[in-house]
Design a protein that fits this description.
Layout lengths: L1 E6 L3 E5 H6 L11 H10 L21 H6 L20 H15 L13 H7 L5 E4 L2 H9 L5 E5 L13 E5 L9 H11 L2 H9 L9 H4 L2 H6 L2 H10 L16
């Protein structure tokens, strides 16, 4: 049974107060990456970086929606062939944008200088204006940083008005054939995967979202965390994770 079903890093968190102090407009849901890059450059000063890819960093999984937005699919349908380069210049363009942010425009922190505590950098120190985050940051950051004016915006597209790409992150629990207490285990799983548990998980800010329509329709969530209103269409059209083949026991 599913416990968490969510879009992979679908939003950008930003510090409204610091942005206002710098005289910048707030990011918009319909921005392109070019618009984000220009805004990040304007927001970069001796004390602040404009934007950082944050929790979308590091690997094809967390950056999957970003790559897809540029027209890159990491593997073929079998999961046995890497296809990063089969989209023409798309992969190069995606990497170039990230490279420019850090190395040309100097609008993002350089991780060669160490890791970045993004929550602290955005919410407390205000030395980073905006960064990509998982959905759990929507309720988590706002709960832990009361008094700080934070908000969230959908991540950009490459072209204005194009379809927003996504990818599913899912955490599931199951019962094995050797389970001694199958009935009790099933009751527990039914509880943690149930509607009320997951509504309360979001309202009380102790877990990420789940792909249950009755949960997303519950007004307690959007009344508490309005950002979930803009995430709902993305969740309703979510794209699956890409497949990576398991070659154990196979000749390759």
């Amino acid at each position: 049974m599913s416990f968490i079903s969510e879009p992979v890093v679908p939003v950008i968190a930003y510090n409204k107060s610091r942005i206002g102090q710098l005289g910048l407009p707030e990011p918009k849901d319909d921005w392109t990456f070019d618009e984000l890059g220009e805004w990040a450059r304007k927001g970069t000063t001796a004390e602040t970086f404009g934007y950082f890819r944050g929790q979308a960093s590091g690997d094809p999984f967390r950056s999957g929606p970003y790559l897809r937005q540029w027209g890159v699919e990491p593997v073929d349908k079998s999961g046995k062939k890497a296809t990063f380069l089969e989209g023409g210049q798309a992969f190069i363009q995606a990497l170039t944008f990230r490279y420019n942010l850090t190395n040309v425009w100097k609008a993002s922190p350089n991780l060669k200088n160490g890791s970045v505590n993004i929550e602290s950098a955005v919410a407390q120190e205000a030395k980073l204006l905006a960064c990509d985050v998982w959905p759990v940051a929507i309720q988590g950051w706002l709960t832990r940083n009361k008094g700080v004016d934070l908000d969230f915006v959908l991540r950009p597209t490459v072209k204005k008005g194009e379809r927003r790409r996504s990818m599913l992150n899912e955490h599931v629990f199951g019962i094995t054939p050797t389970t001694k207490f199958a009935d009790e285990a099933f009751q527990f799983l039914t509880w943690i995967a149930g509607k009320e548990m997951n509504v309360q998980g979001l309202v009380q800010a102790f877990k990420g979202p789940i792909a249950r329509p009755d949960v997303w329709e519950d007004p307690r969530i959007t009344n508490t965390w309005p950002t979930y209103k803009k995430m709902r269409p993305l969740m309703e059209s979510i794209e699956p994770d890409f497949v990576v083949a398991n070659f154990r026991g196979e000749e390759v």
